[in-house]
Write a structure and sequence with these properties.
There is one protein chain. With 280 residues, the protein is an alpha/beta fold. The protein has one domain: Rossmann fold. The chain contains 10 helices and 7 strands. The protein has a 5-stranded parallel beta sheet, sandwiched between helices. Helix 8 links the parallel strand 4 and strand 5. It is globular, with a radius of gyration of 30 Å. It comes from Friedmanniomyces simplex.
Length: 280
């Protein structure tokens, strides 16, 4: 008998087939979504990106002073290793040749572990007087005397951010005279073109700036390293997220690029035109 011979049989056949079919559960799509890994939120990604490195000891961090006290106990060798470790962290695919190009040698770094005061903002001037008091190339001249050439300081102070550089500029005002400026060489509210014009017309003993802005001014030629005797790196300072200048990729990479640039690296060590690195 065909399906058309009996209407009821036809209907029953359709109903039975529909019952045999196993419908997709209503919650399958939802369950699948729940099983899939959730994408990381922007806020979580930012927290992950900005957290302090795992090798930073919390016991050494003083948030009230904004100081990482561990830096004070690092001699020249330990600081050179510390910089190399950070470079490897932020550039894991770097070749041996590239690592050698940006390597900061131990001989470039002056040992300042004898400094027994907190490396806070208000103590930086005293630190510089102790370790860079008399200008090496000019007998009898102190930090407040500037070279005659404009835009050519004897000392550069490198900070991790514009606001921090501004704080340090104020802390070093005792070295400023009418003939020797403590120049602000950072990007905060100051466009590069304006900075170039200022540097070219300013006789300065000390320049305080951020790594990338200092690189830009040196590349332009407005800032000269001809009379440079020392670079002071504000390494002990930490922000509210417990990070120092070497703990953030956006400041560590340009800092190492600055310190390893041609024209500076070959002057580390001893000899005429020596440049020394002081880590505060």
């Amino acid at each position: 008998m065909s399906d058309s011979d009996d209407g009821h049989t036809g209907v029953a056949l359709v109903e039975d087939l529909s019952k045999l079919a196993s419908p997709e559960p209503q919650t399958s799509t939802k369950r699948k979504r729940e099983d899939d890994p959730k994408p990381e939120s922007k806020r979580a990604a930012k927290r992950k990106k900005t957290k302090k490195p795992k090798d930073v000891d919390d016991d050494a961090l003083d948030l009230e002073l904004g100081v990482n006290h561990a830096i004070a106990h690092m001699d020249s060798r330990l600081l050179a290793d510390h910089i190399a470790q950070r470079s490897k962290r932020f550039q894991p695919d770097m070749s041996l040749v590239e690592a050698e190009d940006i390597h900061i040698p131990e001989r470039a770094i002056t040992d300042t572990t004898t400094w027994d005061k907190p490396r806070s903002t208000e103590n930086m001037a005293g630190f510089m007087e102790q370790f860079a008091g008399a200008r090496r190339n000019k007998k009898g001249q102190k930090l407040l005397h500037a070279p005659q050439e404009k835009g050519s300081p004897h000392t550069l102070v490198v900070a991790g951010a514009g606001l921090r550089a501004a704080d340090l500029s104020r802390a070093l005002r005792k070295f400023q005279t009418k003939d020797s400026a403590v120049a602000k060489l950072f990007a905060k509210h100051i466009k590069l073109k304006e900075a170039v014009e200022t540097v070219k017309t300013t006789r300065m003993g000390i320049g305080v700036g951020t790594p990338q802005r200092l690189i830009d001014l040196l590349d332009d030629g407005a800032l000269s390293s001809t009379h440079l005797e020392r670079i002071v790196i504000d390494e002990s300072h930490i922000d509210q997220k417990k990070r120092g200048i070497l703990d953030m990729k956006e400041t560590q990479l340009p800092l190492v690029q600055l310190l390893s640039r041609e024209g500076l690296k070959e002057r580390y060590g001893s000899g005429e035109g020596k440049v020394e690195l002081l880590f505060y």
